[in-house]
Specification:
The protein has helices at 2-10, 15-40, 58-75, 80-98, 100-105, 116-133, 146-150, 152-171, 175-181, 185-193, 201-206, 211-240. It is flat. The protein is mainly α and 257 residues long.
Length: 257
């Protein structure tokens, strides 16, 4: 194990990335634990509201990300400084992405259905960084042989082909497969050849007059969502906490006597 760690993490200069990922995941976990305690009214933690303004933790997160990012660039991949700035950046990124949904919607949607997007982005980010640590390179260049890497044409064709798969998967409404496909081209290829999501740009452009394809896309999307929406939401709730339940509108009172 020690030899593998030295050969695959330390020697390629990936140790700061591992430290940053660990700080990122730990920060997200601790932040969610604290916010859930605040939500339940337990423990010593409270929202920070100087002057009546609720300061979200994305604010210190942005500061830490900037400091850690610039510090990491200046310090390189080796030494104690690189590790310190990796921790600073990981903590900042964890705080920022924990409130990704708030930035996206420009509203306090932390404990709403829209707030699930923060958990999804954090999980996706951690997965991508983990793939990089395991040796996956963007757009499949790691799959080239030494002779192919020396030939510019082979590298360019690999980039173009795999990037094309990623774009097609994205236009077909398969954002997760497109993002993961930047590191694992086979995933993007699957997303590119399968039917598009009904509301995607691809479906609107190419399925407009293909009624059978549009019907198949709607049916496949329905079955996919029915199969996976429940497990995905339970997983998100386990990690980030369940959102607030929106009360169903009750019957309107009838006219008075």
């Amino acid at each position: 194990m020690g030899h593998w760690f030295q050969q695959n993490i330390v020697e390629p200069g990936k140790l700061p990335l591992l430290i940053a990922l660990s700080a990122f995941v730990l920060t997200f976990a601790v932040t969610r634990m604290i916010t859930r305690m605040i939500r339940a009214g337990k423990g010593p933690f409270r929202n920070v509201t100087p002057g009546g303004v609720h300061v979200h933790h994305v604010v210190p997160g942005v500061v830490l990300s900037v400091v850690g990012g610039f510090g990491a660039v200046a310090s390189g991949q080796q030494g104690v400084a690189a590790g310190v700035f990796a921790v600073v950046f990981g903590v900042g990124a964890g705080l920022v992405l924990d409130e990704f949904a708030l930035i996206l919607h420009l509203d306090d949607v932390y404990w709403t259905e829209e707030g699930r997007q923060s958990v999804e982005v954090v999980v996706l980010t951690a997965s991508l960084v983990l793939l990089v640590l395991l040796g996956f390179s963007p757009l499949g260049v790691d799959e080239l042989t030494g002779e192919e890497q020396q030939g510019r044409l082979g590298v360019v064709l690999t980039y173009v082909a795999n990037f094309g798969f990623v774009l097609i998967a994205l236009f077909k409404g398969k954002a997760r497969m497109a993002v993961i496909g930047t590191l694992i081209p086979f995933v993007a290829l699957i997303g590119a050849i399968r039917l598009a999501r009904p509301a995607s740009l691809w479906a609107k452009r190419f399925y407009r007059r293909r009624h059978r394809a549009r019907a198949r896309a709607v049916l496949r999307a329905y079955h996919h969502d029915v199969r996976w929406v429940g497990p995905r939401r339970r997983f998100q709730d386990l990690i980030g906490g369940a959102p607030d339940r929106t009360p169903l509108p009750g019957p309107r009172p009838g006219p008075g006597p």
